[in-house]
């Protein structure tokens, strides 16, 4: 018996905020501190959710709608992923395209909301966000092309689920390349080091954080939650690229997904502890490098 | 057919009524709008009838004028184009009358030219013979020239008109050559005779026909490198004309390519690959050049180059599917290209009408002088942001649906065997196009409509008259086709099957099922947005939201000029792509100017033009007005022809 996709989606929805907590804890361990508990983000979200809202007088309905659309599109995108290892809640031909474009809709409204405030800092963040995402999306689609050719399908359920050709137990070299590439791009998509530093205190050096300077209360909670969710999505994708297919029993699938979150959190924390963020002009090069890895994987697939 | 002709007659009557009633502006406007909208509605009913019944209609006008009888007919391909032409035409007509009445010195002429344009485009897509096609094509070119130079007082408008005129006639010349090469051995000049002659054509002639079609129709469609007339013409024309040109007129180039493919019964693989890679180049370069613009109408014009690229990617894949006997690839590719044609017509005309509304309110096309218009013209903003979401191709808007089908066409091609593997290149390419379009529309929407005003322009901006109905109905169409992709597929399915040379059942069930599931995805997203909105309202019901000034990191003397500008917003991407983006930087002490050059216009088209001009000036020596020397020329020419015949050069 396998875990139902609905339960897997619930696990993602509930468990995703653990990932940033694990990352922070990992960084603390590297720095020789005790650090905040791993469930810190849950406490933050709960606190923010009960706080009042502050809206800049410059803003319009776009600013109020954006956090809601961001969270909704991220959740619907999650429903397109085979989170339990075998199948997604909504699976159809070409859902891989819908997945990427749903995340793009979330990004578009968040960028519009940041421009809605009329703040120069937020405009700067928005400009960087769209620039980096443009290149990252190309790399993501190279991986999608490779997985699609391998599985003869443009549906995530067949590319990453039980029907995937790499579900035979042996991990092909191309899958490793795709996984590393997606991890590299996920760091950019989720605004982590080396592209963005969520812990920075200088607005001029921020990307994602500076876009949400004016969001407060429940709106900020929705945005933080969506970021955590996005990390969870990428963790599930990398997990499925390396180990697709059902995991034997429902409890096992649950455990595998959870451990995927933990590994993702630790991996991001290790990266953030070991390297510094890149200078902004170098980011394009970094993203191109990550895309090139996927390209090598694609070439292997075409052999 | 009678219904369609009656509709077209009504549309033209609208133009005539504007001329007849020109003494009374109000009467002319009402008559014009009523006639045009009624005529468009009749024509749409006629075209829809063809699609629903599945039987093409045709009529013949017996005539002995060159080329023999005139044929007109509506098949599935014509019907798809007719529906879009008349629908968008009606919206543009309603929007434009108010501007023309206020700004133009001779609104009646412009109205007449507008109706002539709409009617001639309808004839272009229904013509069944060479003479009828080229005649309608030329009327279309001339009437759009008249409309582009509506504000001919300005020098840059006249220049844009001239560039357009040269480009469109170069295209027409290529089409003359194409039909001449083709019809040489055909019994008459009807399309049916051309189709019958196609299998017997020399392969070299077919190569020539396909290349000339690519040049002739490529100029009209505005794909790279024939796009250079587009940006100046779209910027110079009144907005509702830009909307019609970008939404409809350039699509006649796509129609022409598809009609030629249909008559030839397919094209060799090299042509499919050429179209596909021209599509990729147009898509990426178009959006990159759009990013560099400060003039929002030029920006939208470059996005037409981009979207024509996406359409050509679909058509290229469809053509490759035909030449490699992969019917599924062919039908999905053509369906994607056709549906994107329909969708682009809807969202691009919506965006241009929105741009027209901004221009009405502010009187400037420079977006760096704008800002904060969302508060002043909220309806235009709503329409514009729907159009922006549609053009960047995010669900649940119509642009996503056609891009999604093009993706599937490219993947189906790559998956069908090693011969079409290269189609995989299209996946990351289309992703790049989409992501850059997102950046560009975040820029233009944000800088024009959001934040605070950067100058005094638009401080008393109001929504102009006649804007509500066209903008809202086009926006509704974009949302409806995005939420019900099955409807869009039903619209183009027959025509795609016709082009693929297969029954429509070849449309893969997976694509059809996916289209239905996409409705569910859109519905769930909207539902979830509603639920989260309600949850947030519940969470903050005790405390009203507190108004504050925007956080400026503690700085208090904030001015609107500190906002990010369009140039700074695009700077990281422009820097990434370097010289390819066409941005030229000029530095002066304490000043820095950037200028977005058109690489093809400034780099190739104008140098060629100047060379031809210098050459022509030298020929002046032979043209001096002395009659007896002219008679000598005539004699010499006659003698040369006689010698040619006498020497028996002709086989």
Total helices of chain B: the number is 24
Oligomer: heterodimer
* Contiguous helical run count of chain A: 12
What's the helix-strand series of chain B?
HHEEHHHHHHHHHHHHHHHHHHHEHEEHH
Helices and strands of chain A: which structural class? mainly alpha
Q: First CA to last CA of chain B: what distance?
A: 45 Å
Largest sheet entry of chain A: none
Can you give the mean pLDDT of chain A? 90
Uncertain runs of chain A are none
How many strand units of chain A? 1
**Percentage beta strand of chain B:** under 5%
Structural class of chain B: mainly alpha
How many beta strands in the DSSP annotation of chain B?
A: 5
Mean pLDDT of chain B: 91
Rg for CA atoms of chain A: 19 Å
Please state how the strands of the largest beta sheet of chain B are arranged side by side.
Answer: 1-2
The helicity of chain B comes to over 70%
State Rg of chain B.
26 Å
Describe the fold and architecture.
The longest helix of chain A has 32 residues, at 120-151. Chain A has helices at residues 5-15, 18-30, 40-50, 61-79, 95-116, 120-151, 156-160, 173-189, 208-211, 217-242, 250-274, 280-302, and one strand at residues 54-56. In chain A, helix 6 (120-151) packs antiparallel against helix 8 (173-189). Chain A is built from twelve helices and one strand. The two termini of chain A are 36 Å apart. Chain A has one domain (5-302). With 303 residues, chain A is mostly helical. Chain A is globular, with a radius of gyration of 19 Å. With 651 residues, chain B is mainly alpha-helical. Among the domains of chain B are: 303-526, no CATH class; 605-646, no CATH class. In chain B, 71% of the residues lie in helices and 4% in strands. Chain B contains 24 helices and five strands. Chain B has helices at residues 2-20, 25-53, 76-103, 107-124, 130-148, 155-183, 191-197, 203-221, 230-236, 239-249, 251-264, 269-291, 296-323, 327-362, 373-376, 378-391, 398-415, 426-449, 468-483, 485-500, 509-539, 566-577, 599-619, 627-646; strands at 57-61, 70-74, 546-548, 583-588, 591-596. In chain B, the strands form two sheets. A two-stranded antiparallel ribbon of chain B has the order 1-2. In chain B, strand 1 (57-61) and strand 2 (70-74) form a beta hairpin. The chains are: A mainly alpha (303), B mainly alpha (651). The interface between A and B is large, with 81 and 79 residues.
């Amino acid at each position: 018996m396998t875990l139902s996709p609905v339960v897997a989606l619930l696990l993602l929805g509930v468990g995703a905020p653990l990932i940033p907590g694990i990352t922070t804890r990992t960084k603390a361990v590297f720095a020789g501190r005790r650090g905040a508990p791993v469930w810190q983000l849950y406490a933050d979200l709960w606190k923010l959710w009960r706080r009042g809202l502050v809206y800049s007088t410059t803003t319009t309905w776009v600013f109020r709608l954006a956090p809601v659309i961001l969270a909704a599109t991220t959740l619907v995108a999650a429903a397109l992923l085979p989170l339990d290892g075998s199948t997604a809640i909504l699976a159809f031909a070409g859902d891989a395209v819908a997945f990427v474009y749903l995340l793009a809709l979330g990004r578009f409204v968040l960028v519009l909301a940041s421009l809605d405030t009329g703040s120069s800092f937020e405009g700067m963040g928005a400009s960087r966000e769209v620039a980096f995402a443009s290149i990252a999306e190309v790399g993501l689609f190279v991986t999608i092309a490779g997985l699609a050719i391998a599985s003869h399908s443009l549906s995530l359920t067949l590319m990453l689920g039980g029907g995937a050709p790499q579900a035979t137990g042996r991990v092909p070299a191309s899958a490793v390349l795709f996984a590393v590439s997606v991890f590299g791009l996920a760091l950019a998509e989720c605004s982590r080091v080396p592209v963005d530093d969520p812990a920075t205190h200088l607005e001029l050096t921020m990307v994602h954080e500076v876009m949400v300077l004016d969001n407060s209360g429940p709106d900020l909670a929705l945005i933080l939650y969506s970021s955590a969710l996005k990390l969870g999505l990428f963790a599930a994708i990398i997990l499925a690229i390396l180990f697709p297919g059902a995991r034997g029993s429902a409890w096992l699938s649950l455990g595998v997904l959870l451990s995927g979150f933990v590994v993702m959190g630790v991996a991001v924390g290790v990266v953030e502890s070991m390297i510094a963020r890149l200078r902004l002009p170098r980011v394009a090069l970094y993203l191109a490098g990550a895309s090139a890895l996927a390209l090598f994987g694609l070439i292997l697939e075409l052999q | 057919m009678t219904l369609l002709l009656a509709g077209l007659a009504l549309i033209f009557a609208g133009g005539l009524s504007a001329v007849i009633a020109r003494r009374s502006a109000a009467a002319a406007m009402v008559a014009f709008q009523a006639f045009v909208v009624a005529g468009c509605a009749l024509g749409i009913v006629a075209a829809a009838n063809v699609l629903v019944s599945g039987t093409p209609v045709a009529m013949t006008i017996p005539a002995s004028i060159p080329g023999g009888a005139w044929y007109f007919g509506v098949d599935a391909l014509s019907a798809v184009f007719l529906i879009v032409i008349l629908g968008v035409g009606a919206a543009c007509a309603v929007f434009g009358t108010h501007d023309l009445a206020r700004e133009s010195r001779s609104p009646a002429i412009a109205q007449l030219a507008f109706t002539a344009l709409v009617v001639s485009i309808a004839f272009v897509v229904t013509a069944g013979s060479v003479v009828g096609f080229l005649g309608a094509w030329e009327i279309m070119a001339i009437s759009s020239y008249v409309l582009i130079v509506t504000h001919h007082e300005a020098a840059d408008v006249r220049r844009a008109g001239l560039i357009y005129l040269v480009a469109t006639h170069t295209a027409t010349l290529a089409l003359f050559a194409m039909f001449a090469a083709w019809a040489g051995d055909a019994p008459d000049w009807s399309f049916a005779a051309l189709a019958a002659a196609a299998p017997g054509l020399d392969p070299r002639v077919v190569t020539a026909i396909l290349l000339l079609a690519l040049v002739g129709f490529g100029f009209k469609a505005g794909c790279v490198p024939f796009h250079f007339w587009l940006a100046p013409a779209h910027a110079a024309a009144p907005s509702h004309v830009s909307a019609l040109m970008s939404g409809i007129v350039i699509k006649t180039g796509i129609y022409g390519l598809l009609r030629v493919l249909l008559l030839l019964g397919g094209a060799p693989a090299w042509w499919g690959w050429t179209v596909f890679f021209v599509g990729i180049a147009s898509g990426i370069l178009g959006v990159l050049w759009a990013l560099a613009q400060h003039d929002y109408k030029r920006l939208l014009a470059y996005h037409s180059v981009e979207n024509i690229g996406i359409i050509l990617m679909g058509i290229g894949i469809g053509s490759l599917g035909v030449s490699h006997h992969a019917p599924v690839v062919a039908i999905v590719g053509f369906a994607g290209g056709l549906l994107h044609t329909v969708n682009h017509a809807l969202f691009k005309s919506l965006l241009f009408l929105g741009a027209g509304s901004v221009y009405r309110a502010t009187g400037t096309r420079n977006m760096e002088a704008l800002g904060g218009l969302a508060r002043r013209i909220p309806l235009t903003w709503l329409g514009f942001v729907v159009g922006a979401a549609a053009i960047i191709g995010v669900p649940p808007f119509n642009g996503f649906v056609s891009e999604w089908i093009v993706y599937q066409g490219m993947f189906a091609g790559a998956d069908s065997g090693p011969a079409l593997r290269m189609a995989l290149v299209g996946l990351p390419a289309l992703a790049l196009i989409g992501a850059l379009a997102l950046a560009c529309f975040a820029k233009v929407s944000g800088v024009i409509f959001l934040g605070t005003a950067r100058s005094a322009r638009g401080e008393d901006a109001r929504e102009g008259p006649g804007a509500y109905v066209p903008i809202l109905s086009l926006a509704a169409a974009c949302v409806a086709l995005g939420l019900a992709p099955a409807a869009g597929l039903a619209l183009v399915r027959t025509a795609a099957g016709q082009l693929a040379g297969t029954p429509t059942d070849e449309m893969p069930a997976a694509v059809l099922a996916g289209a239905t599931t996409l409705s569910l995805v859109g519905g769930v997203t909207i539902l979830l947005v509603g639920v989260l909105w309600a949850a947030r309202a519940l969470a903050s019901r005790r405390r009203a939201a507190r108004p504050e000034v925007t956080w400026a990191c503690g700085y208090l003397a904030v001015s609107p000029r500190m906002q990010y500008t369009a140039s700074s917003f695009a700077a990281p991407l422009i820097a990434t792509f370097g010289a390819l983006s066409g941005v030229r930087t000029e530095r002066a002490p304490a000043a820095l100017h950037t200028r977005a050059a058109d690489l093809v216009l400034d780099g190739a088209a104008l140098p060629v033009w100047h060379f031809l001009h210098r050459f022509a000036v030298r020929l002046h020596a032979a043209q001096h007005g002395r009659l007896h020397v002219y008679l000598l020329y005539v004699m010499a020419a006659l003698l040369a022809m006689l010698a040619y015949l006498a020497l028996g050069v002709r086989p």
